[in-house]
Design a protein that fits this description.
- There is one protein chain.
- By secondary structure, the chain is of the alpha+beta class.
- It folds into three domains: 165 residues, 2-Layer Sandwich (Beta-Lactamase); 83 residues, Helix Hairpins, CATH 1.10.287; 147 residues, Heat Shock Protein 90 (2-Layer Sandwich), CATH 3.30.565.
- It is 52% helix and 17% strand.
- The strands form three sheets. It has a five-stranded antiparallel β-sheet.
- Strand 4 and strand 5 form a beta hairpin.
- Helix 7 runs parallel beside helix 8.
- The longest helix has 51 residues.
- It is rod-shaped and about 160 Å long.
Length: 469
């Protein structure tokens, strides 16, 4: 694509050229009309002068002698050296004075036959191979007729000369105007050039805001948008580095434990010891797998990540499916899962794909982990016109009120035997993406009650609005 300067200059010159062409055409037509009017007036004036001469109060002999003298002078002007001619247009202007059928007087360039037999007034006629503009005047109370004529090419030549002299300064000045416009456009676009140079020579790892002052209003908007983009990229890089650091920190210990169990299995002297080490290895792999899954889920729920399209979901149906997947985990410790919900109510809402399963796995899975063997985890649903609430009660030790604000922080572990400290953080971030909220209370049986509230129509949350605690 061509530069803005070239596009602007080309457009300006095109508009200027079209404008000048239109103005020149209008000027040409106006000049031609005015010249025609001027020459027609001149013909009429010359005819009146000849009329006055023909009607001069002189004796007939003197008048005839005067006319013969004038005709002789005009004929000498036609036959004389061109250096003695009065003007180069002299031979292109002509007149005749007729009395009846007799030619009394004519100019040097006039033919001997009449210009026209047209009635008095203006007319155009071709005589002796030339086109003439003719004015005919009948002398009052006499048989004399005055004919004053002018060759048409004289008028055309003068019109072209006037038009050319009008347009010539524009044609000559157009290159100069182009240079001035080129300089003016470059001067006007200089802030844009400075901005382009600053971006071109900027260190790719430098995500600090652009600082270019002063800036035109239009560029200030662009620079503001670029600075906001740089700030978002910087935040993304910070989150990426933090995620890598968190993943490396959290995976280092499980991987070391897995390596230790593998070494124990290799060094076991009996089949029983080897099987015990392998069982521990399987448990460690399961914990590491869950940790990786939670880390990836947490990264997917980052506020800067694009939200997938929402879909209609039946909360009760998806809750039952998620609980069915968690049933084997509860059965390992003889725990019971109880579901309380009115199937006749409307449990439809709009959520991201997989959101309900993630929510249930983390809330109910967390409740199962903290409840004792043989304990009961109660899952209940409540609904009104705009909100749906998922309630999970466990029989674990609970969380002190002073600690409930911190348990949603990433990697915060509540007591011994806790997981990676990501479950509640994932739940809170997932709810925030849908315009919901998480509340932690004390359960009636002394354990923890988690209340997850979701609107039926998910609310689009602004970027960076979800807590990063």
């Amino acid at each position: 694509m061509t530069s803005i300067r070239r596009r602007t200059l080309g457009l300006v010159l095109l508009v200027f050229a079209i404008s000048m062409l239109a103005i020149g055409l209008v000027s040409y037509r106006y000049a031609a009309h005015e010249i025609e009017e001027l020459y027609d007036a001149s013909l009429a004036q010359n005819a009146r002068l000849l009329e006055g001469l023909a009607q001069s109060p002189l004796p007939s002999a003197q008048r005839e002698a005067l006319l013969e003298s004038l005709e002789s002078a005009l004929l000498r002007a036609e036959q004389s050296d061109k250096r003695l001619a009065g003007h180069r247009y002299e031979s292109k202007l002509a007149f005749q004075l007729w009395e009846g059928e007799r030619l009394l007087l004519r100019s040097a360039s006039a033919p001997e036959q009449p210009f026209t037999d047209h009635p008095p007034g203006y007319t155009d006629n071709r005589v002796a191979g030339d086109d003439w503009r003719i004015y005919v005047l009948d002398v009052a109370d006499a048989t004399r007729r005055v004919m004053v004529a002018e060759r048409s090419d004289v008028r055309g030549e003068l019109t072209r000369a006037v038009a050319l002299r009008t347009l010539l300064p524009d044609l000559v000045g157009l290159p100069l105007l182009a240079l001035l416009l080129w300089w003016a456009t470059g001067w006007g676009l200089r802030p844009l050039s400075r901005l382009a140079e600053a971006i071109r020579h900027r260190d790719p790892y430098n995500l600090q805001p652009l600082a270019l002052q002063p800036l035109p209003r239009e560029l200030a908007t662009i620079v503001g948008a670029l600075n906001r983009l740089l700030e978002r990229i910087r935040e993304l890089r910070v989150r990426e580095k933090r995620f890598i650091a968190d993943a490396a920190h959290e995976l280092r210990t499980p991987l070391a434990v897995l390596d230790l169990h593998a070494q124990n299995a290799l060094a076991a002297e009996s089949a029983e010891d080897r099987r015990e080490a392998l069982d521990e290895l399987r448990s460690g792999v399961a914990r590491a797998t869950r940790l990786v899954a939670q880390l990836l889920t947490l990264a997917r729920l980052d506020p800067e990540e694009a939200r997938p399209a929402l879909r209609e979901a039946d909360l009760l149906l998806e809750l039952r499916e998620a609980l069915a997947k968690l049933a084997p985990l509860a059965a390992e410790r003889d725990q019971a899962l109880a579901l309380e919900a009115d199937a006749s109510l409307d449990w439809c809402l709009r959520v991201e794909p997989g959101a309900i399963e993630t929510l249930v796995q983390n809330l109910v899975g967390n409740a199962l982990n903290h409840s004792p063997d043989g304990g009961l985890v109660t899952v209940a649903l409540e609904a009104d016109d705009s909100l749906l609430t998922l309630r999970v009660d466990d029989q674990g030790p609970g969380i002190p009120a002073a600690e409930r604000q911190r348990v949603t922080e990433r990697f915060h572990r509540a007591g011994p035997g806790a997981g990676a400290g990501l479950g509640l953080s994932i739940v809170e971030r997932l709810l925030a993406r849908h315009g919901g909220q998480l509340q932690l209370q004390e359960a009636p049986g002394g354990g923890l009650r988690a209340l997850a509230t979701l609107p039926r129509e998910a609310v689009s949350q602004p970027r960076n609005s979800s807590p990063e605690r």
